[in-house]
Amino acid sequence: MIDLYAAGTSNGMRARIALEECGLPYTLHPVDLMKGEHKTPQFLAMNPNAQIPVIVDNDGPGGKPVTLSQSTAILLYCAEKSGKFMPKDPAVRAAALQGLMSASTDITPIFGCLFGVMRSKDPHAPTIQMFKDRLRSFFQVWESTLAKKKYCAGDEMSVADLSLYAGYARVKGSAPDLVEGLPNLTRWAGGMASRPAMQRATKF
Ligand SMILES: N[C@@H](CCC(=O)N[C@@H](CS)C(=O)NCC(=O)O)C(=O)O
Question: From the CA of 51, how far away is ligand 1's center (Å)?
Fold first, then answer.
């Protein structure tokens, strides 16, 4: 059994999506960031960076417990453990890794910055617009990719789709204009949203 410590942010969702879609049994321990539950000594012992998500796999490699932070590391760990969502074809696999990094290291961090500025005491409008424009341009590139491919890396669903959906769902919930008017992205997102595992994973 795996213990997941998370909140309903895109990083938290990415880890829960990984567990749900890979079919790995887990227990969710919700972490209230507003109450500072990620700064307790118990939490810091799992992740000294004081960030969700964290998983503790009591049946890790060699049967030993493993504690892991970083949502994309958790996603790759789950994919490897379950043998799912990592394409076998080397070219498709490379495209999946490229897509994974775009979703995890371009979209999610910029959304985090945008959200941080929007919620600050003195929101700086040009900075907000700069982050919005950047995010929109990433989604426009995904729109043209998804015009040619069923999923992020080709005909099969991969870690890239799982990561991108975590970012997409958060942006759609908080700044929907950034993902509107992109029909292929919308078609892809509809397919992802209809998956029972995805529905369970995104409800916090
Ligand atoms: N690169 C990390 C980022 C994790 C992260 O930023 N977590 C945020 C929530 S999305 C957090 O725990 N923030 C705590 C805080 O802001 O104090 C990952 O992918 O897991």
Answer: 4
